[in-house]
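Quick one, tokens below:
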């Protein structure tokens, strides 16, 4: 069941799960699920079940926070494709994580190393092509200079350890 918001009105759209296809999958013909799962089936409660408070009702958060602008539950499902993939984003994905906080820390480190937040801030305003080209050249030269300095420092430290 998909939920979309149009002009403040919420509308539910239902579609069979067998027809849903992964948008960025290396196997475009592989559906999310071959058969509808028990989770996709609507639950019918009797009056006796409504009167009795169950732990199942209280433990699960409401699914109203999922809109067309957020991640769908099918995107959160862990598949073997994430771990065995040879796609272009393989080195930038965090897979098979048992501790979610460590995954967030690793993701934050990747975002910081790749300057993603800085790029997003810079893209809020228009930058002339010559200014952008000059800025990128400066960033590239600064990065190369830092790599060269760290390489020279490592060489000097290695020479110091040898006693030269």
């Amino acid at each position: 069941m998909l939920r979309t918001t149009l002009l403040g009105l919420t509308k539910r759209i239902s579609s069979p799960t067998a027809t849903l296809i992964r948008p960025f999958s290396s196997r475009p013909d592989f559906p999310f699920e071959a058969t509808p799962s028990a989770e996709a089936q609507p639950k019918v409660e009797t009056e006796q079940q409504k009167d009795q408070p169950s732990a199942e009702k209280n433990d699960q958060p409401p699914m109203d926070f999922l809109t067309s602008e957020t991640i769908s539950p099918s995107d959160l499902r862990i598949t073997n494709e994430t771990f065995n993939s040879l796609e272009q984003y393989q080195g930038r994905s965090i897979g098979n994580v048992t501790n979610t906080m460590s995954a967030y820390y690793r993701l934050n480190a990747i975002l910081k190393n790749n300057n993603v937040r800085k790029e997003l801030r810079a893209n809020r305003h228009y930058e002339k092509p010559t200014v952008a080209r000059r800025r990128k050249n400066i960033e590239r030269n600064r990065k190369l200079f830092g790599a060269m300095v760290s390489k020279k420092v490592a060489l000097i430290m290695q020479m110091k350890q040898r006693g030269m």
